[in-house]
Description:
Blueprint: E1 3-5, H1 7-15, H2 20-26, E2 29-31, H3 33-39, H4 46-53, E3 59-61, H5 75-87, E4 91-93, H6 97-105, E5 110-111, H7 113-122, H8 129-137, H9 145-159
Parallel strand pairs: 1-2, 1-4, 2-3, 4-5
Helix pairs in contact: 2-7, 3-5, 7-9, 8-9
Amino acid sequence: MLVVADASPLVALVKIGHADVLATLYGAVVIPPQVAAELISPKRPADVRAFLASAPPWLSVRAPSRLEAIDDLDPGELEAISLAKELGADLLLIDEAKGREAAIALHIPTARTAAVLFDAANAGVLPDLESAYDKLRATNFRVPGTVLDELLARHQAARTPGQ
Length: 163
């Protein structure tokens, strides 16, 4: 499976200690140079900078050969969308609404961080989805609590025998 990621999902997963689910779920993840630059920015927490400084073997950096003509996106999102389109990625991990909308308009399948954790839990890769969501809520990650509650309820209902 070919997966491209924007910075936000990687930052969130590193912060909560679950970046490893990406390798198990997808095998490999590709990021563009601008996303790599965002991850090592002094504005990022030390654990996020350290993650990229000692990048796991399943994470690689690749530049798109050209940028899509999309206005009002930050450079990382634009490069991630352009790379996903160019490579025919199976999935683009992206949280920001404008970026997701632009990717969807280009027929690029997308997933948000909360959905990645949901999928990891359903695949048995993440043993405690509730704990992961609690950690996510404790960060500055922006996702409505109702979204996390709904996904958690769906996960728990699927795990309850007889339903």
